[in-house]
């Protein structure tokens, strides 16, 4: 997507994950004028060096595949999964600045993590709570005094409660438990067999233990659980409801870490919130049952847009 942008000043916002990176350009009035996608840029998933290569390649593409002019770029912000502390952010910022200097661009560069740009996208401000339920999950709270608090987001082994991975894993486990007659028949069995063209649930064992099966492959089965829950399947509804309760508990835990977060506005984002009404409703009801204020906003902007908003605000201060 691009518009006529000759002679217009702009900023760039990047949303970098383990499978792809999206970049959005906005003008100083906040209008989106360009967005393209490139390769993954989570340094924990693909190494720091590959992440830098993919990010710099995407910067090059911005100026070769669109009408944007590098001399009119006023700054950029990158929100990257897998970048969690100041040392990691500074290392990435230094690498990006070095590349920009090599192409005669000396502009402000801000590095954030993916949750921070999602917060800005959801609330239009850099303070509050963002709850993300996609392949993974996390609740992050940023306070006016500069504090940064988190619950969850520890990965699929240590804890991604409420995530697509956990829902997908429980979906597959439910199929096997139903096959063993530990649990009653469930629509999940039919959906999983149709997805993989299997004849029997026992075929799952051969599939799931292959070396190439990763976290994201398990998380793909969350879609089947969402569909089955919408159709009223009892087991699917149980899985979705429990996952939403777990996600809400992560968010509520932030209020125990800092009193301001006990009444802070909440933005939610990610594929599970987006596609499962049961998940969103259960999460919202749980939050409302524990907080005197339960202002929950479903983010309508992409995280890359949030990154662009952060750098735009920074350069206009």
Summarize the structure.
The chain has 317 residues and is of the alpha/beta class.
What does this protein structure show overall?
This protein is α/β, with parallel strands linked by helices and 317 residues long. It has two domains: 10-107, ATPase, nucleotide binding domain (Nucleotidyltransferase, domain 5, 2-Layer Sandwich), CATH 3.30.420.40; 155-298, ATPase, nucleotide binding domain (Nucleotidyltransferase, domain 5, 2-Layer Sandwich). It is 49% helix and 18% strand. Strands 3-2-1-4-5 form a five-stranded mixed beta sheet. Strands 8-7-6-9-10 form a five-stranded mixed beta sheet, with helices on both faces. Helix 3 links the parallel strand 4 and strand 5 (109-113). Helix 6 (164-179) crosses helix 10 (222-230), helix 6 packs antiparallel against helix 11 and helix 10 packs across helix 11 (234-257). The mean pLDDT is 93.
């Amino acid at each position: 997507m691009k518009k006529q942008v000759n002679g217009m000043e702009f900023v760039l916002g990047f949303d970098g994950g383990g499978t792809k990176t999206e970049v959005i350009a906005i003008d100083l009035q906040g209008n989106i004028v360009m967005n393209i996608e490139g390769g993954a840029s989570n340094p924990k998933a693909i190494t720091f060096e590959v992440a830098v290569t993919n990010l710099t390649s995407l910067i090059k593409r911005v100026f070769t595949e669109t009408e944007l002019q590098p001399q009119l770029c006023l700054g950029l912000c990158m929100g990257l999964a897998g970048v969690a502390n100041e040392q990691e952010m500074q290392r990435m910022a230094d690498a990006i600045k070095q590349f920009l200097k090599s192409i005669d661009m000396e502009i402000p560069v801000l590095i954030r993590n993916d949750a921070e740009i999602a917060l800005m996208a959801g609330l239009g401000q850099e303070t509050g709570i963002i709850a993300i339920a996609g392949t993974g999950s996390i609740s992050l709270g940023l306070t006016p005094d500069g504090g940064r608090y988190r619950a969850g987001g520890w990965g699929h082994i240590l804890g991604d409660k409420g995530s697509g991975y956990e829902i997908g894993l429980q979906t597959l486990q439910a199929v096997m438990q139903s096959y063993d007659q530990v649990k009653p028949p469930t629509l999940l069995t039919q959906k999983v067999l149709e997805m993989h063209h299997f004849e029997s649930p026992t075929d799952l064992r051969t599939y799931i233990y292959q070396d190439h099966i990763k976290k994201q492959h398990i998380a793909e089965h969350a879609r089947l659980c969402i569909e089955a829950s919408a159709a009223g399947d009892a087991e699917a509804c149980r899985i979705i409801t429990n996952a939403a309760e777990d996600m809400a508990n992560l968010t509520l835990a932030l209020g125990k870490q800092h009193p301001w977060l006990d009444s802070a506005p909440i933005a939610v984002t990610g594929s599970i919130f987006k596609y499962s009404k049961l998940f969103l409703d259960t999460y919202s009801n749980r939050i409302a049952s524990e907080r005197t204020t339960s202002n929950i906003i479903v983010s309508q902007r992409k995280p890359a847009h949030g990154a662009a908003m952060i750098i735009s605000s920074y350069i206009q201060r």
